[in-house]
Specification:
Blueprint lengths: L1 H28 L1 H37 L1
Length: about 70
């Protein structure tokens, strides 16, 4: 179970990185594309970061439960 969560954490962190780079690109590109996508991508990044934090909390909790 913990190994599965570790893999999910790495996937979530990779998704956060991709969304962050895309959001920064949209922000600096400007124009109509920047206005419509930069804010949307940054909100999506915050959501995925929240999911990654929940996975981290689950990993710590499960390691504490199974180690003691």
């Amino acid at each position: 179970m913990i190994q599965t969560l570790d893999i999910l954490l790495y996937i979530a962190m990779g998704i956060v990185l991709v969304i962050l780079v895309a959001g920064i690109y949209a922000l600096f590109r400007g124009g109509e594309f920047g206005r419509s996508w930069s804010n949307r991508l940054m909100r999506l990044r915050v959501l995925v970061q929240f999911i990654a934090v929940l996975i981290i909390v689950a990993i710590f909790w499960l390691r504490g439960v199974f180690s003691g």
